[in-house]
Amino acid sequence: MPLPRYTLRQLDAFVTVAEVLSFTAAADRLALTPSAVSQLVVELESSLDFKLFERSTRKVALSAAGKEFYGSAQTVLKHLRLAEMAATDLRNRAAGLVRIAAPMVIASAILPPLIRAYTQERPKLVVRIRDAAVEQLTDMVDSGEVDLALGPDRQGSANVRRIALFSSPWVLWCAKDHPLAAKQVLQWSDLRSHALVTAGRDHELSVAQMGAALPEDERISPSEVVDHISTAFGMAAAGLAVTTSPAYVAPWAKRQGLVMRRIVDPEAMRQVCLYRSAHRVASPATEGFAEYLVERLQKPPRPPAL
Q1: Which tens digit of pLDDT belongs to each residue from 180-237?
Q2: Which end of the chain has the smaller Cβ count within 10 Å, N or C?
Q3: pLDDT tens digits, 13-64
């Protein structure tokens, strides 16, 4: 079936006149002259090949055919307005789906309050978090499995753009009654005589990198490596060991009753980055959320509160 020859302006004029049953009142509502509204209705009647109104010098009334056609015309305009509202939401980045990957601590402690604040004024926007290992973040962005990723600085594909957000110092976590808790600031050499548990291969490598600048006989090696930071925190809370991690994990660690101590000489920093595709065009929703994350998280490093 070929597309109809009448226009949306003609439909709008017809529906408005049908609602107020006056060409003059319809003209006021549409910001047109009565003759312009009348002309639009005449053109629509010509295209439809039937009369929409019974006109007299005193009143305007819908014809039988006009009454039948009125509901369909209303539906067309309603869907057009809904489409325009959807387009406006997309232009304003207020609707759509954003998929973001992050490792466990960032996914549970950092992202949720940011998502809540961002979506409170954008109820049509959905942000879905994907838990992921640090090693998977850039691959997930590269493959299109997620739109964004937030996590530690990692080298990845040239197809993935890395935006540095903030630095967080590596700190020690231990039970309040642990001997190391007595010092406010520690040196790496202070850890050598205590059991150290690290979480995951990423943490093990980070500890090794920290000690690389020390003489070989002063380097620190973990006595145990576990898969999850929550396990390391549990062991530290029980006094079985101490553990190290970036300071941004504080919301998790403090729930376990752990205390944080700075480690200096050297003070090692963990850079947290936002990852996004370097080549794919991002949706307006993704673009808006990415800009929000950069605005909220991109800031100079500051010492952790002890």
Answers
A1: 999 999 988 888 889 999 887 666 566 665 555 556 666 677 788 888 888 999 999 9
A2: N
A3: 999 999 999 999 999 999 999 999 999 999 999 989 999 999 887 789 999 9
Q: Is the dihedral of CA 146, 151, 156, 157 positive or negative?
A: positive
Give the type of residue at 64: A
Question: Cα dihedral angle (240, 245, 247, 250), rounded to 10 degrees?
Answer: -50
